[in-house]
Amino acid sequence: NATIRRTAGYLGVSFFIVLALVVALSPVQKSHLVQLVDLVPDNNTPPTSTGARIIIQNVALTLAIQRPITGWGYGFSVFERVASQQFPELARSVEGMSHPHNHFIEQLVAGGIPAVLLFAGFSFLRILGLGYSMKYASEHRNPLLRWALAAWFALEIAIVVYGLTNTSLRRNLGLLTYTLWAGSFILALWATSADEADETLLPTASRRPE
Q: What is the pTM assigned to this prediction?
């Protein structure tokens, strides 16, 4: 509980600090910030997958700076439409402009700074909960449950790492990701509640009748 409260406090303080910095920026400073992340390729840019992702992510950051608080809205076609309108040459030359190829940047573009902070907190607490459940299972000498939680923990880490270069929140892959997240929550909750139930039964079972 203390860790969750500290994490929520850090996220809240970070949100207000970033919000204050964004509001304090002058239009000239915002334009300079846009120029820092605005990466427009020339004709000699090789059409590699990595290069295309970098270009698309910089386009996404440019859009995020324009609407840092509210974002541009959610939806499969929103990013593609806005990016194509503001960067028509890139839309014609770069493939994969339908999404930013990054979970956190996608949340930043869609819902602004509040959305990306909530998503980062959700990712952190999800992994923290599984780690706590692993520790709980280890202390209560349940190796099968511990290994199951460890495998799920590794899967969650893989989802986060994959989300740095692509997105798993859309279409069929999105359904799989949401199912895995629900499964990790249920598994972690069941692991701790089962052990707590065993602890409450131990004194009763060990008590001798008078």
A: 0.66
